[in-house]
């Protein structure tokens, strides 16, 4: 398996549910493969794991044959058909991974909106929050929420700043040891696909970790290659703005692309340089899996498997009106208060984290992993203080920029 998921002790179907009448769960990919070694695979492994632990399915490596809870792998343009198929096949807990689902979901016909209500269907939306979009006035989101009503959506949104902070502090620590006498090599270059918290939080958290390290170790500072960070590269390979951003950041020792598949493009360009000191920092999942043969200091991860597992565990064992991760939720009646999935107090509630080093050199990996361990300990020992700093970054930035703050 790809994802490490901590099982819930004593997990069992709630009173009144049996293997025969328990709600069925479906996982629908975002037009990608369920074996993508990333989000889709992690999410499906969570659905399949809990199905096995509750006795709803037998464990199997791949395929849907004889499974009660299933996976859909729609091709491009087939998302809406997948939803309809799942709804018509009596799946009640439908897990959607990735914001690419939004447009297709909004376009569901009235007859399927009615089926969603009549059959008490719940959508677990991973990495996107339709309710939040609706509250900010996004017309399509608001129209969809108005149609389906309350108590139909369980958003899973990650606080990546917390894990990113650990990565940033660890990077600065690593540089201080590897490049003690070479300050010009203690550099990071970052860019993002869109100016949105799901992207910028990775960068903001990492830079805060570096800033705090620099304050404590002024003799061994790590610096950003650029004074400003490009946040509008999009996620498409070959776009001029993306090419320019990649060519800029690879001048640094550490490249930090937060723009989907542009991580692959950045890693390839670094390899072309032939400089064995340079590397990338990955995002979303442990990119050692997808970028074999490329140097990766760490990856700031969203632990999707654990999040999906815990939401489904609540639904199956505690009840559809008793979600610890969304207090006040009542199916078909109330949305409740959606919780952010962050760096929890124990392994079962850690929804973000950092991956072990993959620098393709045992000595450097040892130093990097030690730095990651120390940064994790530091974060955990000062968690409340650091979280306060991270949550106040936006206001601090506005204060610092004054009239230069963009409207």
From TrEMBL:
<dbReference type="InterPro" id="IPR050957">
    <property type="entry name" value="BMP_lipoprotein"/>
</dbReference>
<dbReference type="Pfam" id="PF02608">
    <property type="entry name" value="Bmp"/>
</dbReference>
<protein>
    <submittedName>
        <fullName>p48</fullName>
    </submittedName>
</protein>
<keyword id="KW-0449">Lipoprotein</keyword>
<dbReference type="InterPro" id="IPR008107">
    <property type="entry name" value="Mycoplasma_p48"/>
</dbReference>
<keyword id="KW-1003">Cell membrane</keyword>
<keyword id="KW-0732">Signal</keyword>
<keyword id="KW-0472">Membrane</keyword>
<dbReference type="GO" id="GO:0005886">
    <property type="term" value="C:plasma membrane"/>
</dbReference>
<comment type="similarity">
    <text>Belongs to the BMP lipoprotein family.</text>
</comment>
<dbReference type="InterPro" id="IPR028082">
    <property type="entry name" value="Peripla_BP_I"/>
</dbReference>
<feature type="domain" description="ABC transporter substrate-binding protein PnrA-like">
    <location>
        <begin position="28"/>
        <end position="315"/>
    </location>
</feature>
<dbReference type="InterPro" id="IPR003760">
    <property type="entry name" value="PnrA-like"/>
</dbReference>
């Amino acid at each position: 398996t790809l994802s490490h998921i901590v099982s819930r002790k004593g997990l069992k179907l709630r009173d009144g549910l049996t293997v025969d009448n328990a709600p069925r769960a479906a996982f629908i990919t975002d037009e990608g493969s369920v074996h993508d070694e990333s989000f889709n695979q992690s999410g499906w492994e969570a659905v399949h794991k809990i199905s096995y632990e509750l006795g709803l399915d037998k464990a199997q490596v791949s395929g849907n044959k004889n499974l009660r809870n299933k996976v859909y792998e729609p091709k491009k343009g087939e998302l809406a058909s997948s939803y309809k198929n799942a709804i018509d096949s009596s799946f009640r807990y439908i897990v959607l991974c990735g914001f690419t689902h939004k447009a297709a979901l909004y376009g569901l016909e009235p007859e399927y909106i009615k089926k969603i209500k009549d059959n008490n269907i719940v959508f677990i939306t991973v990495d996107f929050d339709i309710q939040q979009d609706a509250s900010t006035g996004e017309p399509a989101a608001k129209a969809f929420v108005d149609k389906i009503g309350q108590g139909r959506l369980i958003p899973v949104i990650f606080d990546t700043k917390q894990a990113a902070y650990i990565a940033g502090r660890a990077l600065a620590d690593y540089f201080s040891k590897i490049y003690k006498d070479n300050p010009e090599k203690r550099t990071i270059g970052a860019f993002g696909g869109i100016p949105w918290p799901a992207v910028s939080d990775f960068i903001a958290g990492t830079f805060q970790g570096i800033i705090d390290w620099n304050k404590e170790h002024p003799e061994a500072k790590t610096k950003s290659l650029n004074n400003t960070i490009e946040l509008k590269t999009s996620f498409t390979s070959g776009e001029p703005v993306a090419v320019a951003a990649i060519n800029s950041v690879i001048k640094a020792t550490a490249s930090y692309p937060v723009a989907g598949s542009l991580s692959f493009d950045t890693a390839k360009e670094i390899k072309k340089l032939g400089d064995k000191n340079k590397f990338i920092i990955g995002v979303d999942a442990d990119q050692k899996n997808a970028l074999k043969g490329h140097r990766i200091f760490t990856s700031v991860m969203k632990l999707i498997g654990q999040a999906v597992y815990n939401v489904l565990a609540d639904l199956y064992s505690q009840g559809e009106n008793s979600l610890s991760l969304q207090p006040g939720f009542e199916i078909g009646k109330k949305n409740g208060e959606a919780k952010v999935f962050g760096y929890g107090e124990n392994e079962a509630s850690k929804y973000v984290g950092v991956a072990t080093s993959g620098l393709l050199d045992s000595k450097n990996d040892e130093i990097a992993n030690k730095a990651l361990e120390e940064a994790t300990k530091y974060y955990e020992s000062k968690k409340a203080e650091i979280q306060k700093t991270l949550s106040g970054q936006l206001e601090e930035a506005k204060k610092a920029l004054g009239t230069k703050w963009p409207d």
